[in-house]
Design a protein that fits this description.
Oxidized Rhodanese, domain 1, 5 strands, single chain, globular, alpha/beta, five-stranded parallel sheet
């Protein structure tokens, strides 16, 4: 059992209105160029082991990728580093788009 929570797109949309929520895109650079969730920061999954300190200080951290697989790995990693209140966006940007939410370009 993992120590992070899965979150659906509508719940993430509502959570993003709260302060100190950090949304992290772990996709590759070429994927991010197609659009990202507003206010998300980009830390490619391969760079997370050297950049995870950027997560510290957030009340909640939500990871996402294309479909939710890589972001689940990122969430597991963050939990292993002692980060609290970690979430994985179920279905990734596919679910975000299907729910009708917008993307921004880098």
């Amino acid at each position: 059992m993992s120590n992070f929570q899965n979150i659906e797109a509508p719940a993430l949309f509502n959570l993003m209105t709260q302060p100190k929520v950090l949304v992290v895109d772990v996709r590759n650079d070429d994927e991010v160029m197609r659009g990202r969730i507003p206010n998300a920061i980009h830390i490619p999954l391969s760079m997370l082991p050297v950049e995870y300190q950027k997560l510290e200080g957030a009340d909640q951290v939500v990871f996402y990728c294309h479909s939710g697989v890589r972001s689940a790995l990122a969430a597991d990693f963050a939990v292993s580093k002692g980060i609290d209140h970690v979430h994985n966006l179920t279905g990734g940007v596919i679910a975000w788009a299907k729910a009708g939410y917008d993307f921004v370009n880098k």
